[in-house]
Design goal:
It is a single chain. The chain is mainly alpha-helical. 68% of the residues lie in helices and 6% in strands. It has 6 helices and 2 strands, in the order H-H-H-H-E-E-H-H. Strands 1-2 form a two-stranded antiparallel ribbon. Helix 3 packs across helix 4. The N and C termini lie far apart (40 Å).
């Protein structure tokens, strides 16, 4: 398909942009999963862990990743079995599980920094710096739009 030729009117552009989010996600997963030792979502989980100074609990990681606690647990179990992370009961709340890197996970994370740069250079190779700034701003607006969608769905559900 030649996506550039499909933008014939505003509604069609909205349709393509909306569907494009899912299409791009699927394409990214497919390419990433084909060439890496772990899935794209597992890679994201490992990357998100870098943002925390202390081992976060599953719910905190889920919020950061934009998914459910159960989804994080499903992603984490194979990583634990392969020795990248540890799932341990929280010292603050025995009902919560926290995720921490193992030595293998720390090594992977350090090596992954270079791979992250490689991925970013490839994905954004056709963007100018100004376009990246614009895309970043638009992505923030999309994230806000998703919040509005959640609120609208919740309101709709309450009215029924």
């Amino acid at each position: 398909m030649e996506y550039e030729k499909m933008g014939i009117n505003l509604q069609w552009k909205k349709n393509l942009l909306f569907a494009g989010v899912f299409i791009q996600e699927n394409l990214l997963h497919s390419v990433f999963d084909r060439y890496n030792e772990m899935s794209c979502k597992q890679w994201l989980l490992m990357s998100v862990l870098k943002a925390f100074d202390t081992p976060p609990d599953l719910s905190t990681v889920a919020k950061a990743m934009g998914c459910s606690r159960q989804n994080v647990k499903q992603l984490a179990r194979p990583l634990e079995q392969e020795g990248y992370i540890r799932l341990e009961k929280s010292e603050a709340d025995a009902r919560s599980l926290c995720i921490s890197y193992t030595e293998k996970g720390k090594q992977f994370s350090e090596e992954n920094t270079a791979k992250g740069k490689f991925v970013h250079e490839a994905v954004f190779s056709e963007f100018t710096e100004d376009e990246i700034d614009v895309y970043y701003s638009l992505s923030i607006k999309m994230m806000n739009g998703i919040k509005h969608l959640e609120e609208a769905f919740q309101k709709q559900k309450e009215e029924v």
